[in-house]
Amino acid sequence: MMNGISLALTYPRGGAVLAPPPWVPDPDRYMPAATRTRWPTGAIATPWTFPAGLNYQCTKLFFGSPDYPTNDFLIPFVGFALTEGGNAPQETQSPNADTVIDEAFFVMPNGTEYPILFGGLVPATVTAATGIVYWQVILPVALPAWSIFGVRTVYHGAEGAQRCGSYRIQRHRGEKYWGAADLASVQALAAADGASTAALDPDSLYNTIGNATNSQIQAYGPALVLAKGWDGRPIPLVVGDSLIERQEIAASADERGNMGMIRRWLDQRDQVWGSTVPLVMGVPGEHNEFELATNATRRWVMIDAIKTTFNGGKDIWTFCLDQGGRNDNNTTLSLWQSRKFGLDDRIIARYPGAHMVGMTILPTMAGSSDSGRTVAGYSATSALWNPVTGTLASMNASLIASTRFAKTIDIVPAFMSDSDPTKGSAAELTPLGNVIGHPGNQDGVTTWDTMRLPNTTKLGARIMFEYQPGLWTSRTLVDRTDLGDGTANYRVAEVLATNVQDNAALLGHAYTAADFVHPALYGVLRFVSRLPQSHKAKFYP
Predict the structure, then answer these.
(1) Measuring CA to CA, which residue among 89, 7, 5, 99 is closest to residue 48?
(2) In this structure, are residues 189 and 92 in contact, taking their beta carbons and an 8 Å threshold?
């Protein structure tokens, strides 16, 4: 059943599926019900801590609901954290101190709040490294399909104590992060609903990523949001690497909080195939070789416990989608294969009969002579990463042929340029018009942080512009003020004194930085638009 219409499984000549089979609702089964959810993670060097005078904190986070109404919510909070990068997703960055959740609220689209309770009570202590608490709320009226809703969480710990962090605040979506020295003070800040506490979400770190000292600070929140009301559409358990959502961080998130290639593609509201809210098990930096192995099982134990305790023996997913394997790369094909497929074998052993869908692995560009402006400017793709003749080509061929997967989705063509199948997209493929307003005073000395562009330019994008004839530079757009005349003022993250010529040509970057590993917003959007939604037919056994 899809938007009230039953879709039959039909086949034209040749046997291709045109539409999914009718969905069989199971409204009493808890299923993932929120975009944007993210497991707590820790920087490799240092876990997050409670600052002096700000050890009582409140986060207000917004999520997108599924394309069906929901009413009964199960919202787990956890005390363990995964490594982000390095040996991700091993759960080895957990804090050494408990976190107390003082209160939590479900925020309806109109702003009305309903208490979320733990066993009918608040507060609840989330034990460091091992704790899981299950909060619940039954709304007096159903949350409409395809809504934006919030979860507001008030929590505290001792000053200087380590804590979990999950979310980088997305300011343009109204998310907030407050801190104070006591409960009453942080409650007052939340009631006023003013700007975030500057020390917890400073401008200097907004939309940045690195380690615990040079990243946008991660705030605590729910590990998952589940709800009853499921209409039977496929729900993927996704094992994957940083392309699921990174290198998008905060400013580029869409209106439902989605970041990255796969989350955005899954959440497309296609009129035939529908959207789906995934259960994403990994975090940036993830290796398939580490997942569901030593130090990487707590999340799996948790979702199985939900199956047993709350779902009458039914999983909170219907099939497994494996997008990972890129970080397991090796010039020796057999080693790459064993790292990649070992996880799939562990999943099959844990869940006999699971419907497995694989995705091919994307390449990394070797470098560029023009900072990613043109496809021709890319260096020759290395023997490891060449998707046509290299080790990657062999790896992807073995993935497509593997009997572990009932179906596979070849995502490489959607990612690559049309002019050269060995090279990715470049900025030249996304012309955005021209720079409209000169930033700064154009003396070449005074720095500037605001420029005027067409208001169709995407917030959070990395852009490239021809600041002088034949000379190009780049900026990242982190804030926006629409001027009502087809233009907008954009604040940029990189504050430099560059002089900009009149009507400078403007392009949208395909990659985030010179490593040419992670696609930037325009590269992500290009990929999503080019990967057919009909691949969702493979979600069905």
Answers:
(1) 99
(2) no
pLDDT at position 48 over 90: no
- 3-state class of 524 per DSSP? helix
Torsion of CA 192, 196, 200, 204, to 10 degrees: -160
pTM check: above 0.90 = yes
| DSSP state letters, 470-484 | TEEEEEEEEEEEE-S
State the Cα–Cα distance between residues 303 and 66, nearest whole angstrom: 19
Give residue 5's pLDDT band: very low, low, confident or very high (50, 70, 90).
very low
What local confidence, expressed as pLDDT, does residue 4 receive?
38
- For the chain, give the mean pLDDT: 94
The amino acid occupying position 501 is: Q
Rounded to 10 degrees, the C-alpha dihedral 511/516/518/523 comes to 30
Q: How far is CA 371 from the centre of its chain?
A: 25
Question: Two tokens at 22?
Answer: 């009718």
Q: Give the model confidence (pLDDT) of 286-296 as tens digits.
A: 999 999 999 99
Question: For residue 351, what is the DSSP state?
Answer: S
In angstroms, the CA 500 to CA 464 distance is 12
Burial 505-531 (b: 16+ CB within 10 A, else e): bbbbbbbbeeebbbbbbbbbbbbbeeb
Residues contacting 373, CB < 8 A, separation 6+: 426, 427, 428, 464, 472, 507
Picking from 264, 258, 252, 255, the residue whose alpha carbon sits closest to that of residue 477 is: 252
Q: Which two tokens stand for residue 33?
A: 């019900």
Q: Which two tokens stand for residue 154?
A: 């008030």
Rounded distance between C-alpha atoms, residue 410 and residue 416, angstroms? 12
Q: What are phi and psi of 302, to 5 degrees?
A: -65, -50
C-alpha 312/C-alpha 321 separation (Å) is: 23
Closest CA to 74 of 106, 107, 99: 106
At 229, list the tokens. 């009301």
Cβ atoms of residues 100 and 157 within 8 Å: yes
- C-alpha angle 132-36-241 in degrees, rounded to nearest 5: 85
Place of tokens 């307003």: 437
Euclidean distance between the first and final Cα of the chain, in Å?
17
Neighbours of 330 (CB within 10 A): 15
- DSSP sequence for 276-311: ---EE---TT--TTTTTSTT--HHHHHHHHHHHHTS
| Number of alpha helices (DSSP H) and beta strands (DSSP E) in the chain | 7, 27
